[in-house]
Amino acid sequence: METTSKIRQCIKIATQGFIGREQLAELIILAAIAKEHLLVIGPPGTAKSAVVRRMAKTLNGQYFEYLLGRFTEPSELFGTVDLKKLREGTVETDTAGMLPEAEIVFLDEVFLGSTAILNTLLGILNERQFKRGHTQIICPLKICIGASNSLPDDDGLSAFADRFLLHLFVDPVADNFIEDLLAGGWQAEYAAIDTSLSLDELSTLSDQVKKVNLDKIFSPFADAIRLLRQNGIVLSDRRVVKTLKLIAAAALVNGRFVADKQDLWPLYYVIPTMDMQQQGQEILKDIFMISNNSQLFNAAESATQQPNARLERLIELAKGCLNNEDIHIESVLREIDANYAANTIPEPLKQLRAQLINLIAQNA
Q1: Does residue 179 sit in the same domain as residue 221?
Q2: Can you give the three-state secondary structure of the chain, one letter per residue?
């Protein structure tokens, strides 16, 4: 499929200079195709909003962003009441340029919204409908990305958090990547944005999700849910069923209309808390053993921590070295050798490894 071939380029453009944020960009793609929403939890200054903005520009979608606070008014998100029509006795909202007309929405500190804001958001997130007074419109929303420093303790807010099917927890860049952070941050300041993949193209994939055959995954997926329940991780029926859309989207991005066991990895991101995700990763390690995705491989690898999920990333890194991209050949070779023995390395990666060794010899 032509669209899937553009996904990698879109992700690379949007994350250029942002160390370790490919996972976020990939999950935005997955969620947008499945028409689900993503919650990103992490401390300030971890490039959450920067990556979301660049993804929105790369996809060239109608974008709305807002930082919520305790005193944020509903009109700041949804639009003001049309005073002319109000004088005529009709309560209508002018939504031009506001959240109800956006295709991609980013709400920072999303849990600080008032009850009135969150209740209105529920209708938009769930039904893609905005209702206020006499104003009732169908929203073109493809994905809402919410962000917060932490998950809420309040039961009411936790129920709202549950409407975000995917939960991603991000940390600051590790100490051993600080040099890369500095170089990448400087690069990101001046990186150009190219709209290599349009939101309309992703919508075409969204329309095809329902055509994906899921027969092969019902049994292993049911086994995974039972395993989680046996270990105290209980997902709501709604989350379990909606996960099928993510699995179908993962298969579709991988160029297939038949989902199989390698596409079960999105289940990891449906588990709601960081502790539960870490526990679930261990519980499901056998089910996740063959997880892989040719386009969303960072997200698949982070979810499963399985060698098979690393293959596509290592192939891309090796090709980047051969194409004279700014990648350290020696570090790529070390990671390849750390993950594969001589008799287990897949043939495509084996050939690339040999080319990298020849390149080092030529430059010696």
Answers
A1: no
A2: CHHHHHHHHHHHHHCCCCCCCHHHHHHHHHHHHHCCCEEEECCCCCCHHHHHHHHHHHHCCCEEEEECCCCCCHHHHHCEECHHHHHCCCCCEECCCCHHHCCEEEEECHHHCCHHHHHHHHHHHHHCEEEECCEEEECCCCEEEEEECCCCCCHHHHHHHCCCCEEEECCCCCHHHHHHHHHHHHHHHHCCCCCCCCHHHHHHHHHHHHHCECCCCHHHHHHHHHHHHHCCCCCCHHHHHHHHHHHHHHHHHCCCCECCHHHCCCHHHHCCCHHHHHHHHHHCCCCCCCCCCCCCHHHHHHHHCCHHHHHHHHHHHHHHHHCCCCCCHHHHHHHHHHHCCCCCCCHHHHHHHHHHHHHHHHHC
**80 and 176 within one domain:** yes
* Residues constituting the chain: 364
Chain-centre distance of CA 350, in angstroms? 30
Per-residue pLDDT of the chain (364 residues; tens, 9 = 90+): 567 778 888 888 888 878 788 999 999 999 999 999 999 999 888 788 888 988 998 888 899 999 999 999 999 999 887 767 766 667 788 889 999 999 999 999 999 999 999 999 999 999 999 988 778 899 999 999 999 999 998 888 888 999 999 999 998 776 666 666 666 655 655 566 666 688 888 889 999 999 999 999 999 999 999 999 999 999 999 999 999 999 999 999 999 999 999 999 999 999 999 999 999 999 999 999 999 999 999 999 999 988 788 888 888 888 888 887 767 788 889 888 888 888 888 888 989 999 988 888 887 6
- What gap in Å lies between CA 56 and CA 143, rounded to an integer? 10
Q: Are residues 56 and 135 in the same domain?
A: yes
What is the domain range of residue 90? 2-190
Question: 271 and 341: one domain?
Answer: yes
Domain assignment present for residue 198? The answer is no
